[in-house]
Write a sequence for this structure.
């Protein structure tokens, strides 16, 4: 993508993950954070030092910053929908971190308002279209390397839930539906749809009694895809860190083991030889990964038109599965996933 005019933006939520997002924005050279707001004054001052952003006294004041084209929203998920809609109503483009929103009503309102205003809305999911590992796996699927894919298993887990205290929004089922399924499982859902297409229905069982929060500590989902594929997604936030992804096919299996941040990820493939010893061998993803791909896509959509990837609708497709999973866990029934078109 050819670099164009730098985009002047405002940002809310500049500490924590917001600091990571700011670093990626600096890396692209495409954005200038001219104003910022955060309830954490230390984080706000750091943003001023690193990005030259003028501190705002409130989010409402931030939206009135002269000359901005877009707002980056890196706050907690319970704020995403209200902050995004306030910006959209002022005609500002928005980039919203994942999860997109906390309720089905918010999801519908966001989609409706974007359609009404015509603003560009990006979502902070990974850009799998510019990720070497994702593209390698997708090519293997499309070439038929696995044979006919029988199923898959995906697990996402860490111990962050043990640090949730009464009163924290992550412990509130109204703002954190599905617990870890909402917080990190949406990453997996978004990735799975990149490989396998739309998810049509979900069955789910959840456990709520491991920790003191009211939201789910454990979620086990059976996902059904439009293609007929069925696989499992499990999410827990009360165990040690673990992220795995396995594909099982009639010709080959794939085993992905994402170690902790400083240990990298292992990729192993295993050919299918009936009644013979099946040796595993390393798989080395080919190509280049652009960790800034999602915000580059957002910039390009604002400047040149079209839909960014991931888009607001991509974010909605991921949380729609979470909402269906929670309903399935509560009712004991298989639930159809809302179609986002």
């Amino acid at each position: 993508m050819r670099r164009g005019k730098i985009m002047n933006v405002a940002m809310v939520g500049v500490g924590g993950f917001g600091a990571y997002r700011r670093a990626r924005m600096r890396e692209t050279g495409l954005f200038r954070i001219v104003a910022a707001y955060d309830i954490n004054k230390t984080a706000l001052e750091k943003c001023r030092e690193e990005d030259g952003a003028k501190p705002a006294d409130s989010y409402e004041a931030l939206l009135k910053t002269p000359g901005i084209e877009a707002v980056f929203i890196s706050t907690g998920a319970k704020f995403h929908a209200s902050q995004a809609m306030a910006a959209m109503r002022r005609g500002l483009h928005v980039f919203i971190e994942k999860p997109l929103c906390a309720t089905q009503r918010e999801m519908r309102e966001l989609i409706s308002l974007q359609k009404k205003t015509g603003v560009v809305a990006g979502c902070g999911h990974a850009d799998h279209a510019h990720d070497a590992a994702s593209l390698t796996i997708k090519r293997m699927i499309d070439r038929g390397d696995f044979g006919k894919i029988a199923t898959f298993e995906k697990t996402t887990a860490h111990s962050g839930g043990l640090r949730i205290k009464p009163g924290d929004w992550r412990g509130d089922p109204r703002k954190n539906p599905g617990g870890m399924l909402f917080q990190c499982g949406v990453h997996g859902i978004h990735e799975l749809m990149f490989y396998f297409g739309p998810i049509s229905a979900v069955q789910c069982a959840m456990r709520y009694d491991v920790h003191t929060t009211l939201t789910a500590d454990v979620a086990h989902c059976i996902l059904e895809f439009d293609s007929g594929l069925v696989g499992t997604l499990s999410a827990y936030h009360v165990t040690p860190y673990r992220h795995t992804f396995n594909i099982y096919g009639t010709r080959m299996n794939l085993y992905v083991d994402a170690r902790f941040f400083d240990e990298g990820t292992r990729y192993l493939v295993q050919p299918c030889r009936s009644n013979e010893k099946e040796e595993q061998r390393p798989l080395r993803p080919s190509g280049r990964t652009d960790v800034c791909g999602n915000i580059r896509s957002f910039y390009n959509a604002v400047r040149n038109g079209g839909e960014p990837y991931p888009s607001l609708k991509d974010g909605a497709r991921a949380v729609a599965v979470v909402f269906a999973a929670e309903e399935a866990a509560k009712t004991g029934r298989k639930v159809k996933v809302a179609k986002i078109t």
Summary: Residues 312-331 form the longest helix (20 residues). The mean pLDDT is 95. The CA atoms of residues 117 and 225 lie 32 Å apart. DSSP finds ten helices and 15 strands in the chain.
